[in-house]
Write a structure and sequence with these properties.
This protein has about 350 residues and is of the alpha/beta class. Helices cover about 40% and strands about 20% of the residues. It is globular.
């Protein structure tokens, strides 16, 4: 595979998705053959917002070649332009879900090699009738995937999660031997997508200092240690439970290829400390591991407070498309992704 084709979903029309697509497009074309899934008129409005010289072409199917000066859009024509920036609306939530479902359809049909998603608004999608907390569960159900995990990547720090968008009390209850072991397994397989065949994986504890030998909790001994032992018995290079207050910095320094975090903020905070630091730059990528299709995403939200102002940073979207193209190429080399040029 010379140039993977990546479907880029536009995200919530009221957010920054369309404008970061426009701002990122020259870099996206350098990494892959991108095709946007969304609304052509909203994207044209974003071209004006960014004061860009690019043009937008509505297409019915994925083009065979990409013009670096024209953004191709599989146009679902669900939104009136200009959008009402920064406003939570049911129709915007429904549109953003439709963009994702169409991109997933293109990926499962082999029309594209990967998808990269711009941010959606969970309140808007909930208003539209969706019970999903975000893209991950939606795509897992769409592809009939049972074992999956959220991976965040920022530089050399890679973090997967046993649970994500649930209340903290529920997240603690979800730290079971079965759930931790499943996440370790999905993480191990997912590292192969990144070109790491024999990853060193650290598993974070749930409690401070990984319970300090049982002084600060029991989950480490009763749930996490058995999962780590089982993974080791299966030949995986796994360490833990490790103290959560040090393991992420150790991984960022290269001690481990990935850390398995126990819950959303435990894993997200160290990644975003690195990716959101200084000069208003936002980097980092969200990857859904375990899916039969390749899916990456920006590691930020819809940024309603700055939507329509033309100042949103596109770096995370560039990272997401570059990583999507890399994963697609790695899967093709392993014979796990059909070569669409055949």
């Amino acid at each position: 595979m010379d140039r993977p084709t990546v479907a880029v979903t536009m995200g919530d029309p009221a957010g920054i998705g369309a404008e970061i697509v426009v701002a990122a497009y020259p870099d996206l074309v350098a990494a892959a053959d991108p095709v946007v899934v969304g609304d052509a008129d909203v994207l044209r409005e974003a071209v004006a917002v960014r004061d860009s010289d690019l043009t937008v072409a509505a297409v019915d199917a994925v083009p065979e070649t990409v013009d670096p000066e024209t953004i191709p859009v599989v146009d679902l024509d669900l939104v009136d332009a200009p959008p009402e920036y920064g406003v939570v609306r049911e129709d915007y939530g429904a549109a953003s879900l439709a963009f994702v479902e169409r991109a997933a359809e293109l990926a499962t049909d082999g029309a594209v090699d990967a998808i990269a998603t711009a941010p959606i608004n969970k309140q808007a999608t909930r208003m539209a009738g969706s019970d999903y907390a975000g893209h991950t569960g939606l795509l897992a159900d769409y592809t009939d995937t049972d074992a999956y995990a959220m991976l965040l990547v920022e530089g050399d720090l890679r973090v997967t999660h046993v649970s994500t968008h649930v209340p903290l009390a529920e997240a603690c209850d979800r730290v079971t031997t079965a759930a931790v072991r499943e996440t370790i397994g999905v993480t191990h397989e997912g590292m192969r997508d990144l070109g790491i065949d024999d990853p060193e994986i650290a598993v974070a504890g749930l409690n401070p200092h990984a319970s300090d030998g049982g002084l600060l909790g029991t989950a480490e001994a009763t749930e996490i240690e058995p999962a780590v032992a089982d993974a080791r018995a299966d030949g995986l290079d796994v360490t833990g439970p490790a103290s959560p207050d040090t393991v992420f910095s150790q991984a960022a320094a290269g001690a481990y290829d990935c850390v398995v975090a126990m819950y959303h903020d435990q894993g997200h905070i160290p990644v975003k400390m690195l990716g959101f630091a200084g000069d208003d730059a936002v980097s980092g990528v969200n990857v859904t591991l375990g899916l039969p299709i390749v899916r990456t995403s920006v590691d930020h939200g819809t940024a309603f407070d700055i939507a329509g102002e033309g100042v949103a940073d596109p770096a995370s979207l560039v990272d997401a498309v570059e990583l999507a193209a890399e994963i697609a190429s790695n899967r093709t080399e392993r014979g796990e992704l059909a070569d669409r040029t055949d």
